């Protein structure tokens, strides 16, 4: 990962600002002959799309992805050609309003102050480059990555903690995630969570959340020691998502409290002669390489920084002010982060697949 | 990061196995004219060196680093020349014993099974490439990185949780770390922790821990959106350290429970006209770019996988067995992980400095 | 360089096929606060644009570049923000004709056979990804690179050999290049060259050429030993241009015939105390690092592979056939290669500037 | 390629100076289970080794390579493990003499002036990092690369032009190269060339040369458009070798004089149903991808810059002086460049193999 590109062999370069004419990405390194068209991308984009419920931003975007290159239909339907795949998404609801106050003042918790400090200029319109709108490009790229991985690898994520409210580990049910507007990994918590989040929303406040990720079907052997560890790549990918402040693999921070005996994932031989682990504290990775067990991770999102309560801040000219952030915002940015977490996992794994194949054949 | 190299402009490539003739690294991209000799490396290596107390492995290694290239003394003492710096550390206590059982059986929690699955071969002697011995090279590279960063940037880490025992956040005192054999960030906890860890050790068991990191003196503006975020780079670097299972920045997982109001790090203008933050939930990073506040992170280490209690496992030939791991081991691998955490932070920051300078001048 | 990206810190990723909806590129790593708008790109694109004379393809393309991201006007005109700059060029004259024969048969000298062999599929429409149309993206990126380099660095190229006809070294005049339709680096040769090339053109044949490059104003010290040598980077960049088969720096192949005495570029101290070289066989590079003298190179282009004379070839189904390539083609692809050579040089140098600044400050 | 590393997946990082304690390299990304020991490296190193005849430097170096990591013998002989392979070569004849004059004055044609300009310091002892001694590491890495490529890919190079003396293309015989001290690709020219080069040598002068390269056995499909073209990678690799000033592929600069008809490599179907080219002006590469024909290239070396005739130069303090370079030098640095050219070709191809396998499977 560097600058605006991530991945080594499956490489994604994203571009675009929140209120510019468009955003998009270039997906490079894709193997050829994979059936791919725009309809393969859209369902994933629709999951992340704004405006789907009262719990997400009311910005109106169709998030329609167009593929401008890298696929070709020679009579049997469009397939990848091995050439770079350019994906383009128009910004349709970038409002031409007066950004006056935000243009001058730094919104606490946002990247306003740091972009200004680094670059001496920032596109303040809707957060510019640092807007979560950029994650639409990630989701589009993730859809391509899923096609490389195939149906045998199943990537699922969901909200398992909303503010202080948690889903018990044994109650996590990823199949519920896209059937409720909270992306919650349990149908049972939804009514209570909706009521609570309505309170947060109406108060003009916001909350954080934890998203759990589980990937099944990864064969043993993917990843690469020591500085290309699968879990290190995954951690970097997750930490690159807006508002993420923590990543843990398997037992994660909980493993610090375990004894060596309890943490050991013991092994037996299964009926088919393969290795069967008796537990998965490792989260599917040992020494940076996949074990064949499910890859599990948890990702912490901070609360949305845009809130209606005035906060103390300063302007780029060095004067103190108070700022309340009006406009259209997600009360909990983690919700729409769920498809983004899945997409980044897909990209990391597609890259791992190609790298593994390169060295091992 | 890829394969065995990390860093973009300040690049470190490590090599070597636990029981081979030597380990080492090549540090490339270092600016010229920085005074550097072997005496600059040794104090940091001594902190990580085995055999220093009963709480770490009893393997006897002097960990003497030799610099084989990249420095030149033109009369005023050795300085870096801009050429790659090769650092070489002999393995002095690699025992020629019979590894029979470990050669065949996979130690639970170790990378034995995954290396075998990926490569079809593994250097089982002392863990081979996946041994924590490799981290000596990281510490040597980190010492070079510190010279680039200069004295204004202070990197400190320490154990803040040992198994279930925690140091309260307001009791953390990094100045205590290298004065106690537990690398604990508080002198007060040491007697109780020593007694508890003695129990773990004598039982042939092991425990996990959490290491806190704090870096002061980083100016605002380092780091690079979106896929070279300072916190993403740091997370990957930490997750690449043996036994690390979780990384959080600033308030980390705790931020998921905060409201937007509480999480906002408000800003005022200080007496010198600069920005003064009223809190640091962000951990010194917003949008992937440093704020000028201290960079803070916490890193979770799992318990040492080598324990004396027999665990169920399998052999590479597919038979079931029970395995107890004899030999010389750290009861808590996180302890000597403290200087490694510092070193990796130094490398990430030296790289960030060079990258920032490239784009911004 | 890898896949479809070139550059280390100043990074250009291109995408698009000859007859797809558009082509474009993403320019990443650009320093902020550089004034830039579409009018800065267009003059360079116009130089490469097809249809300008009877000596280039008659395809009608306005080659209008749109900037979709990475610049922002905060009141004083648009400047770069440090974010990726997406540049988009529509394909306006991609004809919907029957490609029947070319779809099946491999045009000799083109990449048809190799793309098919590698990918098992190829976008045959107008050459697809391997079309020289892609070089418009390079020219757009080069225009951005020139803004980074500033006016002190002057990059000029021109045709110095057309088929067997050469311009004597001491007659090379780069100021003539864009005043004649042959991009010839001498006004004097134009009438004779035009007559000769008309004959080639009317015969449905094609010819090769040699382009000379000269860059003045590069300070001493750019470049990086050993695998990032300035001349090695330049050679790779040039060899990546369609139809280029040879690159030489300074005296190049001629240096093989020189004695050590004759090849030595002797040095004296100039009136201002700086080093003055007495000759420039080195072409401005020693040990991969710029000397401060002009960077000089020569680039050989093979003849356009598309010719009207039937040539023996085979189809992707393995049958023999004869093929004549109808359609719109440049009789000498090197002519419009001149602005491409300049653009690639600009990109290499902008990257070298940033890399130099990173390590040296 | 960047800094001191080349290759994308098969990555070689070299380190060391001419008169330091040692030189070496780290070869990373090697597939596992390839039989490899030091005896596999030595024959190639012996070909490049100094002191073999009166036509090369008289420095006495055994160039004994030690492998310090990355191979493991589990009972059936040492094989690669997939871990980085550290190779170490001691400097045995680095003379502790007074370098006084060379320390101050810049040798014309050498990198002395540019290293000083860039870094503000240079290890002047024997040329330091810019010495051709570094190429021993390349040859060692190339030996590893050959093991990956296997015996089906045959890489051969030889001198085809010594100063003004050329071997006719149809007289080139690579089998003669290592049977004569001039590395000449024709036994017939050796007596005359020896006599001529003796004259050059005795006069304290030097000469340039052209080395031809031919690689057979590469399947169609290796390489990657557009910025990872096989010929672009090869050009960069060759241009990174000391003293190289030009690279051409296939017909190279000669192709500029060809008509499209003559340059076309026509295709027919062979007896086994495969494609048979009727000529190879392309040098085995079309569109950056291998055609299956032999890869052919020619590389121009400038004369050795170290000569006994005094040349005008300046010191780092800015005074004018005359300098004659005493000491041990190759009268024609291209001769020992032959095994280096082969080694770099091997590294480029091993990398291409891995990259191809990654994307195509």
Automatic annotation (TrEMBL), chains A, B, C, D:
Family annotation (SUPFAM superfamilies): Chorismate synthase, AroC
Biological process annotations from GO: amino acid biosynthetic process; aromatic amino acid family biosynthetic process; chorismate biosynthetic process
GO cellular component: cytosol
Gene3D superfamilies: Chorismate synthase AroC (3.60.150.10)
UniProt entry tagged with the keyword Lyase: yes
Cofactor note: Reduced FMN (FMNH(2)).
One Pfam family linked to the record: Chorismate_synt
Positions that bind NADP(+): 48, 54
Cofactor: FMNH2
Binding site for FMN: 129-131, 242-243, 287, 302-306, 328
Keyword flag Amino-acid biosynthesis: yes
Highest taxon in the source lineage: Bacteria
Pathway: Metabolic intermediate biosynthesis; chorismate biosynthesis; chorismate from D-erythrose 4-phosphate and phosphoenolpyruvate: step 7/7
GO terms for MF: chorismate synthase activity; FMN binding
Record keywords, A-Z: Amino-acid biosynthesis, Aromatic amino acid biosynthesis, FAD, Flavoprotein, FMN, Lyase, NADP
Record EC number: 4.2.3.5
Record's catalysed reaction(s): 5-O-(1-carboxyvinyl)-3-phosphoshikimate = chorismate + phosphate
Subunit structure: Homotetramer.
Function per UniProt: This reaction introduces a second double bond into the aromatic ring system.
HAMAP family (UniProt xref): Chorismate_synth
Assigned protein family: Belongs to the chorismate synthase family.
Protein name as catalogued: Chorismate synthase
Gene name linked to the record: aroC
């Amino acid at each position: 990962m560097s600058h605006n590109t991530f991945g080594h062999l499956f490489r994604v370069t994203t571009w675009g600002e929140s209120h510019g004419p468009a955003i998009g990405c270039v997906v490079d390194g894709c193997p050829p002959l994979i059936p791919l068209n725009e309809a393969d991308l859209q369902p994933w984009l629709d999951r992340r799309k704004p405006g789907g419920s009262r719990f997400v931003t009311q910005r109106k975007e169709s998030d329609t992805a167009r593929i401008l290159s890298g696929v070709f239909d020679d009579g049997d339907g469009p397939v990848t050609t091995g050439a770079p795949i350019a994906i383009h998404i128009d910004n349709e609801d970038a409002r031409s309003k007066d950004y006056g106050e935000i243009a001058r003042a730094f919104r606490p918790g946002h990247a306003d102050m740091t972009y200004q400090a680094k670059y001496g200029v920032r596109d303040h319109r809707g957060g510019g480059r640092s807007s979560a709108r950029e994650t639409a490009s990630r989701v589009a790229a993730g859809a391509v990555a899923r096609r490389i991985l195939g149906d045998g690898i199943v990537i699922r994520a969901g909200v398992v903690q909303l503010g202080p409210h948690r889903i018990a580990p044994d109650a996590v049910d990823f199949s519920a995630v896209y059937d409720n507007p909270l992306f919650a990994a349990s149908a049972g918590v939804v009514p209570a969570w909706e009521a609570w989040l309505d309170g947060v929303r109406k108060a003009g406040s916001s909350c954080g959340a934890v998203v759990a990720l589980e990937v099944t079907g990864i064969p043993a052997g993917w990843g690469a020691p020591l500085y290309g560890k699968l879990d290190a790549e995954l951690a970097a990918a997750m930490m690159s998502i807006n508002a993420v402040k923590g990543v843990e693999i398997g037992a994660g921070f909980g493993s610090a409290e375990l004894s060596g005996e309890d943490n050991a994932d013991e092994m037996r031989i299964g009926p088919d002669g393969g290795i069967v682990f008796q537990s998965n504290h490792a989260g599917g990775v040992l020494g940076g390489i996949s074990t064949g067990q499910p890859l599990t991770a948890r990702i912490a999102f901070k609360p949305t920084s845009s809130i209606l309560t005035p906060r103390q801040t300063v302007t780029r000219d060095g004067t103190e002010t108070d700022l309340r952030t009006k406009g259209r915002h997600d009360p909990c940015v983690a919700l729409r982060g769920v498809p983004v977490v899945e997409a980044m996992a897909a990209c990391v794994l597609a890259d791992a697949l190609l790298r593994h194949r390169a060295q091992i054949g």
